[in-house]
Design brief:
single chain; alpha/beta; six-stranded mixed beta sheet; four-stranded antiparallel beta sheet; 10 helices; globular; binds adenosine-5'-triphosphate
Length: 239
């Protein structure tokens, strides 16, 4: 299985000002998978995504993507290597239009034709963004803004998409639209690492999942199997 690993995180430690948030975390994402990372508030999910994305330097451990070491590399180098992060809270430029936000996501593409093609592709995936191309991002609904955030991530044409809580604060109807689109993008070949507090939705979409508790991985396995385990049912599903 190791041969098909796209991303390998090995014994990773990271934190804030000496306070550890990740304590020896390991995880593997294989090409073509959707992997979910679930855990309670403050467990370290966002910290792991930020560390992979080069926004937080690790204290120790290794991050390998397509055979290339990424730990300690800056965020722009990680994007160029083929990884895009869709951050929690979306972080859009509210005063800029949909099109302008999208083009900012394509800053690593120097070629104008490639940027155009990326724009056409995300407009095909999210037709609402094509309709609203000239509208400022801040005036759109939460669900539309989440679609824009995902589309902006896709504009760098990543091979791995890191998604932080895409369903947060969004109406259930739109959550399922967004999840359907993620499944479609995955079928087209994009690999996804998904962080969620919406454990049911995440485990329904993912093929495998990891459970993180206070900075440590405590469980991993096929998503369907985890749904049946005692720790997941009690801690996350309220059963
Ligand atoms: P949430 O779902 O609330 O985002 P999470 O699982 O993503 O939770 P993290 O945001 O990664 O958790 O936080 C992990 C730990 O690191 C927590 O104890 C948190 O308080 C701490 N932490 C996160 N960001 C910072 C920061 N910028 N400075 C200091 N401590 C932080």
């Amino acid at each position: 299985m190791a041969a098909s690993a796209l991303l390998t995180v090995d014994d990773l430690t990271a934190g804030y000002g000496g306070l550890p948030a990740l304590r020896g975390v390991s995880l593997e994402v294989r090409a073509g998978e959707i992997v979910a990372l679930v855990g309670a508030n403050g467990a370290g999910k966002t910290t792991l995504l930020k560390t992979i994305a080069g926004l937080l330097p690790p204290e120790s451990g290794r991050i390998t993507f397509e055979g290339q070491r990424l730990d300690g590399r800056p965020a722009h180098a990680v994007v160029r290597a083929g990884i895009a992060l869709v951050p929690e809270g979306r972080r859009l430029f509210a005063k800029l239009t949909v099109r302008e936000n999208l083009l900012l996501g394509a800053y690593v593409q120097r070629d104008e034709r490639t940027r155009r093609q990326a724009l056409d592709e995300v407009f095909a995936l999210f037709p609402i963004l094509a309709e609203r191309a000239g509208q400022t991002a801040g005036t759109m609904s939460g669900g539309e803004q989440q679609m824009l955030a995902i589309a902006r991530g896709l504009m760098s044409r990543p091979r791995l998409l890191l998604l932080d809580e895409p369903s947060l604060g969004i109406m259930p109807r739109l959550v399922s639209r967004i999840y359907d689109t993620l499944a479609a993008i995955n079928r087209q070949g994009l690999t996804v690492l998904l962080v969620e507090q919406n454990v049911h939705a995440a485990l329904a979409l993912a093929s495998r999942a990891y459970v993180i508790q206070t900075g440590r991985m405590v469980l991993d396995g096929p998503a369907q199997e985890l749904l049946g385990t005692e720790v997941v049912r009690r801690a996350f599903l309220g059963l």
